Amino acid sequence: MSKKKIRMTLLVTIFLLVLSACSSASVMEGRKVNKNKQELTFLSNFPSETLDPHLNYTPVRAGVAETLVKINEELELEPWLAEEWKTEDNGQSWVFRIRDNVTFQNGKKVNAKAVKSSLERNIKVSEAIKNSLKIQSLTAEGQILTIKTEQPLPHLPSELVHPNTAIIDVSKSNFDQRPIGTGPFQVVSFDANSKLELERYDAYWDGRARLDRAILTFNEDANARTLALQSGDADIVYRPAIESIESLKSDKTIVTNVVPSLRTHLLMYNTSKESLADQNVRKAFDALIDRKEVVESIMAGQATIASGPFLSDFPFAPASEEEPFGLHIAKKHLEAAGYEIENGKANKDGKPLSLNLLTYSYRPELPLIAQLLQSNAKKLGITINIQQVDNIDEYLAKNEHWDLATYSMITSPRGDASFFLNSTYMPGGAINPGQIQNDKLINVISELNLAVEEEKRNEIAKQAIITIDKETLHSFLVHPNNFVAYKDYVDGWITSKSEYYTLTNELGVREK
């Protein structure tokens, strides 16, 4: 290269560095202005195609909408829009008293009639909520809402914690773009899967929010989320890159929170497929997943090994041992299912075992887990074709042509086993794409649904989980930690175990 070209290249490089420095200065100056205005930007990995609270969690996470009941960090139920509730017939008729000082973000008073209308619309548009609430009738008088269910439902209040039961003004339309809720923030604008702009609702019933404005953005790339925090483009980042946690901890301008989550990464089986209807085949795949390697190598230590759907210290989690791992164990189960390994292929009746495995990228560890399973299966002559999809729930709802799927879900969002068991194993459950139909398990869960005393409920839940483990209806892999990083001037942030509550009226910017 000529000296002239070298000189020109250096000039261009210097210019870009100066421009970058100016840009960074501009960003930091912008942050100062934002701090004075009490504005924060939150960046997450949760995509949002709609703001309809009855179909999406984002409005509750963003402080736009609220539910009748909420859950605290000790996994105890607390009043929210309902200040109290009671039942006198073991859970078939429930009386909720709605707070008297609540208004929607358009100024309309929230009374029992408005709540009734919201719930009616809720069960109309969401089959999952309809199946979980089992509402037979709703009666409203003043601030008193009476819910009668199709059968006794002792855990109904915990079902009303679900973000999709959020209360909104259904006399208005445009739910997917600008729902009218009761929270501390109201919607300014929404760009699907990209950006949500919010402003404070000054008449919020539980105290005026500290923030004037808030912006929620989305990026499925964990490294991009980390860089956004470091550059000042975001103030709070949910799930930065796992490998960046230690370096973020060494940055004095950044605070990192790591807490155990209520989430479980698992492997789903499509039991409508002939091969996976055989529990021996499912047990073979279960033995092919080295959970210790997943925790140490894929999760960088930010997870614990799962021996079931729930954290081991929960009162409804039965005592269990770590799942055995190894090719020799998997081989024995395949042989029990009638497979022979010949010429490097697992065959049964002359047909090789070849399966399609779904995964998705906005939880970046899941594709890596899929690759680990693919590699180990290949050693036994099993072919696994990995297919990455954009929206796993939408794909599973519309397609039956899949065999396995890596999946992640909050299994105990309300401190109770019933949500997971009902939604995953009962007929009509919202999270049963694998078409699991186990009569013994259905009977146990039905008994759980009628039980009132907590101790009895816990014992019945343990029976259900033992059955799930014995039949290997799912393979539970790890419980990932929740981790959030944010700038040191952010004040009032709480990293929620439930992942339900993000922007609150207590969140603000610390004064220096």
From TrEMBL:
Signal peptide: 1-25
Keyword Transport: yes
Top-level taxon of the source organism: Bacteria
Key word Signal present: yes
One GO cellular component term noted in the UniProt record for this chain: periplasmic space
Domain called Solute-binding protein family: residue spans: 76-426
Similarity section: Belongs to the bacterial solute-binding protein 5 family.
Stored PANTHER family: OLIGOPEPTIDE-BINDING PROTEIN APPA, PERIPLASMIC BINDING COMPONENT OF ABC TRANSPORTER
Record protein name field: ABC transporter substrate-binding protein
Species this protein is from: Bacillus canaveralius
Lineage of the species this protein comes from: Bacteria, Bacillati, Bacillota, Bacilli, Bacillales
